[in-house]
Write a structure and sequence with these properties.
The chain has a single domain, classed as Spore Coat Polysaccharide Biosynthesis Protein SpsA, Chain A (Alpha-Beta Complex), CATH 3.90.550. Helix content is about 25%, strand content about 25%. It has 7 helices and 11 strands.
Length: about 190
């Protein structure tokens, strides 16, 4: 399985912390989220692709993993152009696990990703709506390549009837919404 970790965002909602530290390297429970993703995904991923932009040098300096390939984007341009580009140029697996670097999910979600039993799905944190998309999905490479949509939201709308929907519920946190960092360190 190929993995795409989206980590090129500006981290605007977490300023002033993100003035000097990229959002994926913010520690939750004493470990940067990106480290946790890589530790858990390393067991199941064939290839890991990470897009970087803002504070790219800090992320490059922090990560040393032979499965990881970084893609520098000089301008933040949204997630879909990167997914579409990498889908046609680099991905080799039939399925793509897509995850935002700034979310914390229970490790059971990772453990449920068996290479033999993957099905396309979108994860939601409440009900099945774009606003509640949890920042993770299993996509079919052929769907990514054939669609003519211009955004991830449009992709979800196009395929939400054919892809499964799963709910991450209380095991999910977007770090941009955390207000009590003492609670965050208890995740």
């Amino acid at each position: 399985m190929d993995v795409i970790i989206l980590s090129a965002g500006l981290g605007s909602r977490l300023k002033p912390v993100t003035n000097y530290l990229p959002k994926p390297l913010i520690a939750v429970n004493k470990s940067p989220l990106l480290y946790r993703h890589l530790q858990l995904l390393n067991l199941i991923a064939d290839n890991i692709f990470i897009n970087i932009s803002f504070h790219a040098a800090a992320i490059l300096a922090a990560i040393s993993n032979p499965k990881v390939q970084f893609f520098y984007e000089p301008q933040v341009r949204g997630t879909w152009p990167f997914i579409k580009e990498i889908g046609s140029d680099c991905l080799v697996s039939e399925y793509i696990f897509l995850i935002s670097a700034d979310i914390y999910i229970d490790e059971q979600v990772y453990l449920s990703l068996s290479k033999d039993k993957l099905t396309p799905c979108f994860y939601f944190n409440k009900n099945k709506s774009i606003e509640n998309f949890a920042g993770l999905a299993i996509l079919k490479k052929s769907d990514v390549l054939k669609t003519k949509v211009n955004s991830l939201a449009e992709f979800i709308l196009e395929f939400q009837e054919t892809y499964d929907s799963k709910y991450v519920g209380p095991c999910y946190k977007n770090i941009a919404t955390i207000t009590d960092w003492d609670d965050a360190n208890q995740l």
